[in-house]
Amino acid sequence: MDADVIVVGAGPAGLLLAGDLAEAGVAVTVLERRDAQANLTRAFAVHARTLEELDARGVADELLATGQRVGELRLFGRVKVGLSGLPSRFPFLLVTPQYETERVLLGRAERAGARIERGVEVTALRQDATGVEVDVRGPDRAESTRRAKYLVGSDGVHSTVRHALGEPFPGHSAVRSVMLADVRLSQAPPDVLTVDTGSDGFAFIAPFGDGWYRVIAWDRRNQRPDHDPMDLDQVRDIVRRVLGTDLGMHDARWMSRFHSDERQAPHYRVGRVFLAGDAAHVHSPAGGQGMNTSLQDAANLGWRLAAAVRGWASEDVLDGYEAERHPVGRAVLRGSGGLLRAALLGNPAARWVRNTVLNAVLKLGPVVSRVAGAVSGVGIRYSAPRGAHRLVGARAADVALAGDGPGRLYEALRGGRFVLVTSASGDASERHGWRGPVTTVTPARPLGADLLVRPDGYIAWAADAS
To answer: Which H/E stretch holds residue 201?
Structure first.
C-alpha cells in the first residue's frame, strides 16, 4: 500500500479530511492536479457550525484573525436572519476568502504529517476487496499507479473520481450567466456583505480584506453563454440597477461567467471509495452553504475512516457517513434552492409579498432560532438508532470542564479523540462500547447525563446520570 487513504483534491474538504486522518495516525496522501493553491475564490462565508469544527481542531482562532464577523445574514431586500442568538461560541458569520480557509487547513494537515502532492492528476481507478488502485499522471507527464485501503474524491463538481465510479450526478442548472469580477471600489460598501435583488437581477459584493472585492452579479435581461466574453461595464450596469450605485467599481483583475447547478450524487460511498464536498453535491450559493457543507462532510468521514483503518470499529462504521450526510446534503439543496428562487422573483408585487411575509415571520422567536440553526449548521442533528438515548445524534454543546485539563469540551476534542463527559467516578467504557482511544473529562456543572462525544462534535452515546 502507498497509503492507508488517498484523498483526491486539495480543496477545503480534502485538506480538513487529510488533517483529521494524519492526526489519528493514518497514512494519508492528497493528490491535487493544480500545481499551486488557487488565489481565486467563490466561497466567503464560514458559518458557526464550521467554526466549531475548526475550534475542535485548534485552528478557529487563526481563521478568525483573517476575516470580519457579521451578526446577521441579509438574504434580500430588508429580509435578514439574526445570528447573535445562536447557542455557540461563534454567534456570527465569518467573512473571509476561501483561500484563507484553505491556507489554515493546509498548514494543519502538513504539520500533522499528511503528504500533499501537486500537479498529480488521477486518470482512472479500480477497487477490489482489499483496496483501491488509481492511475495517475505526474507533473512530468509520467504515469504510475498508487494503491490505498480507501480513496476519497473531494475533487469538485467535475469530479474525476465520481466519473470513474460511473456515479450519476442528477440535477439541473439553477441560474445561468452569473458574472464574477474581482475589482477595486472608490467607495467602501456600507455593510461587510452587500447583497440585494430587483426586477433586473441580483448583486453581491464581498471584501477580500486587502482592498479587493469580489462582485457576483446576474442580469435577468442579458443572459449569455458561460464562454461569452464580458467586460466591467456589464457588471457595473447590473450592479447599479440593483443597488443604485456601482460604488466606483474599477480596475478589474479577473472576470468570468459561470452557471450554478443543483445536483447530488445518489451515493456517497461505493465500496472503498467515498465522495465528499462538491464531488457529492452542488447547490446554489444562496445562504453561503457550499464550503460549509463540504467541510462538515469531511469532519463526519474522517473519524470513521480512522476507526476502520486503526481497527477501532468494524467497516460498518463507514456506512454511517452516507446515512448521515446524504440527508443533510439533500436538505441544503432544497433550502438554498428555495432561497435562490425567492431571491430571483422578478415581479415587484411578488417581491413585496415575499419581503412582508418573511419579515413578519422572522420576528417570531422560535422561527428565528430554527432558521438561524439551519443556515448556520448549529441546528443539524443526525438520526439515532431505534432505542438509543434521546441525546444520541445531537450536536454536543461546548460545555465548560472542571479540573486542570482542557477548559472546554471542544478543546478536549482536539487530536481527533472521542471524549467521555461524565461526573461519575470510575470508567464508563464498558457501557459506551467504543474501542478506540477516549479522553475522559468532568463537566464544570452536572449535565444530567453521561455523554460520549465523537471527534466531529456529535453525541455517539448517552446515559442518564445515576
So the answer is: strand 201-207
